[in-house]
Amino acid sequence: MKRFVRRAVVTAALIAVPTMVGAPAFAAATAGTPKKKPAVAVDQVAYETEVVKLTNAERSTRGCKALRIDDRLIASARAHSTDMVKNRFFDHTGSDGSNFVTREVRAGYPKRDAAAENIAYGYKTPQQVVAAWMNSAGHRKNILNCASTAVGVGLVRTSSGTPYWTQNFGRG
Questions:
Q1: Are 52 and 151 in contact (CB under 8 A)?
Q2: CB of 152 within 8 A of CB of 115?
């Protein structure tokens, strides 16, 4: 019984804090507190970044320079992954008939520098998707093309959690 009373008193005290402090003072005191991003967004960025790290590790063991992350290529990759999820398809051709060059240009990347695209779905981790790409001749060729200098990765999940991956490469 004492434990219940103690919890009730602590809970009541916590509820009363904003009232005791006053709403404006409480709001001012918490105004500078950084807001956390949703876990999915943090997961998404962390996973996308990990794919780049793993891709660069594969490249470095074969004599290619590391790719730099380009925000335009990220935008292009995320847009294609979103399109595939939203419109329930899996293909290098977008629902509007676009190819990776068109999508990279839409995101502001120079047409002459668009290089390649890898896509995958169902792989739950960055390690799984990079391993799958490295075990596929065409995807492996894109990753190990030393002429590529930039990359952007886009991960989007279906409502049931299935991951769709797009990796766009550039030369600029």
A1: yes
A2: no
Contact status, residue 90 vs residue 121, Cβ threshold 8 Å: yes
Question: Alpha carbon of 96 to those of 4, 28, 47, 91: distances in Å?
Answer: 61, 48, 27, 12
Give dist(CA 142, CA 74) in Å, integer: 16
β-partners of residue 118 are 167
| DSSP tag of 33 | S
Written as six digits, the tokens of 1 are 């019984």
Instruction: Report CA Rg, the chain.
Output: 23
Q: Which of 115, 89, 88 is nearest to 101 (CA)?
A: 115
- Note down pLDDT in tens along the chain; length 172 residues: 444 333 333 333 333 333 333 333 334 444 454 554 444 455 899 999 999 999 999 999 999 999 999 999 999 999 999 999 999 999 999 999 999 999 999 999 999 999 999 999 999 999 999 999 999 999 999 999 999 999 999 999 999 999 999 999 999 8
Q: Give, in order, the Cα–Cα distances in Å from 28 to each of 17, 18, 19, 21, 33.
A: 14, 11, 14, 11, 10
